[in-house]
Structure formats: C-alpha cells, structure tokens
Write a structure and sequence with these properties.
CATH class: Mainly Beta
Strand order of the largest sheet: 1-2-11-8-13-6-3
CATH superfamily: Alpha-ketoglutarate-dependent dioxygenase AlkB-like
Number of strands: 13
Bound molecules: succinic acid, fe (ii) ion
Radius of gyration: 18 Å
Number of helices: 2
Distance between the termini: 64 Å
Length: about 220
C-alpha cells in the first residue's frame, strides 16, 4: 500500500517542540531544547555584556592560557589567573563590577533548575564561555562555590559540542553527551562535584553564531 504523507490536524495536537528530559547520570539531566525559543534573545544579551566586559582568555593557576574565552555577569564573576580560581565582585582587568544578570538569564536558570527538581535556586553568578573551533575545557569540578546543595545550570548555544560528565573522582569514566543549541544541563546533589568538561569544538556552523559555541553557567557562588 502506498503511504501518503498527509499532514493531519492531529500532527499539531501534541507540542512537537516541547522540551524533554534525559538523565546523563544520577542527579544530572539534560533538558533538551529548553532554551531553544530564547536563543536569539540570549545571544543578544551576551553581545550586550561582551560590549561592556570583553571576552578574554584567562590564565590557569598553572600558567596555561585557556582556549575558552570568558566573561561574566551577576553579582559574582568567576576568574582565574596565576593566583588561583575564585569568585570576584569586580573584573580584575578593569576593577569595575560585572554587568547585572539580565532578567532573561535569571528567569531561564530558575525555570531550568525548578524543572530539574531544584525550586528556589537563585543564581548570583553567570560565567559566559565562548568556544571557537578547537577550543576545549578539560575535566574539572565546579567547587569554588559556598553551598554544594545548590545545583549548576548550564545552557548551550550555537555550534554543538560533546559534553563529558564523569563521577566524583577524576578517574571515573565520563559519559559523553552531544549538546546542541538550546539544551540545558542541570546537575546537583550526588552529581554536584562530578568532573565534567567539553571536548575540542569541531568546525561547524550555526545560523546565529557562525562557528562559535557559547555556554552560560549559572551558579550560586555565595
Ligand atoms: C563549564 O564547565 O564551565 C563549561 C561547560 C560547557 O561549556 O558546557
Ligand atoms: Fe564547570
């Protein structure tokens, strides 16, 4: 029998673009497509922040220059240089406070945290990462925050990347997950101190970002 491709009203009855949840490991989920409708507005907000606080490639305490360029907004900015990793209320390169966290950022982070089972999350720090082709982030823990009961909310925009989520020990074998623009990862509780990183960004193209990937990491620093 010949199958006809008919577009029935039924096809539109369910919300085909509704986000869905995938578990990576215990207490770590990807909210697929969660930020998809906000892509453009989020990228515009990033551009506004970067105009005031340009992306820069910071140095690790070990003296390596990071391949990922960073800027920050919110009460606290995450910075690194040869004197260590830390949160600072002001930008070390200008001495000025960070731009306020845009409401669209805050609302998205709160909604994602709530969806993942962390109602009451109030981020006070947003690290903005920019990956160009070839940039990567080695396995690390997010542990400069005061309260590990608060989750990490991480929003992907632009070119897809492979996110690695390991366990609490560096030697735990990581699970690889492809993150596309609009995906939001939330990890907390037993996964809060899990090692994670991003593999070298492959050349790619995204309608709104060209060959770049951006990531917003929301945290409660203090
Ligand atoms: C990070 O761990 O700060 C970045 C994660 C990502 O870029 O997806
Ligand atoms: Fe991290």
């Amino acid at each position: 029998m010949k199958k006809s491709l008919s577009i029935t009203p039924d096809l539109f009855a369910g919300d085909l673009s509704a986000p869905w949840v995938e578990t990576i490991v215990d207490d770590a989920v990807v909210l697929r497509h969660f930020a998809l409708e906000k892509e453009e507005a989020l990228l515009a907000a990033i551009a506004g922040i970067a105009e005031r606080v340009p992306f820069r490639n910071m140095r690790t305490p070990g003296g390596h220059t990071m391949s990922v360029a960073m800027t920050c907004c919110g009460e606290w900015g995450w910075v690194t240089d040869t004197s260590g990793y830390r949160y600072q209320a002001s930008d070390p390169s200008s001495g000025r406070t960070w731009p306020e966290m845009p409401e669209i950022f805050r609302a998205l982070a709160v909604a994602a945290a709530t969806e993942a089972g962390y109602p009451g999350f109030e981020p006070d720090a947003c690290l903005i990462n920019r990956y160009q082709p070839g940039a990567k982030m080695g396995l690390h823990q997010d542990k400069d925050e005061n309260d590990f009961a608060q989750p990490i909310v991480s929003v992907s925009l632009g070119v897809p990347a492979t996110f690695q989520l390991g366990g609490a020990r560096r030697r735990d074998r990581p699970v690889n997950t492809t993150l596309i623009s609009g995906d939001v990862v939330v990890w907390g509780r037993s996964a809060r101190l899990n090692y994670h990183g991003v593999l070298r960004l492959k050349p790619g193209q995204h309608l709104l970002t060209g060959d770049l990937r951006y990531n917003l990491t929301f945290r409660r620093a203090r």
